[in-house]
Write a structure and sequence with these properties.
With about 50 residues, the protein is mainly α. It has helices spanning about 1-10, 40-50. It is elongated and about 45 Å long. About 0% of the residues are buried.
Length: about 50
Amino acid sequence: MAACAQFRRVDFAQILFTADSLSNIECHNDRGWGLDAHETVLTLAAKIIAEF
């Protein structure tokens, strides 16, 4: 996507979101893939985008 945007000379941005943790490999906790945080993250992302 970034290469296509550069080729077409348009702005490009991306937001990455992850909620899985492998910090303690012996006791992996997927935390429900962050389902409880999705609304918060999407709201924050929308506010950031609106600022542009």
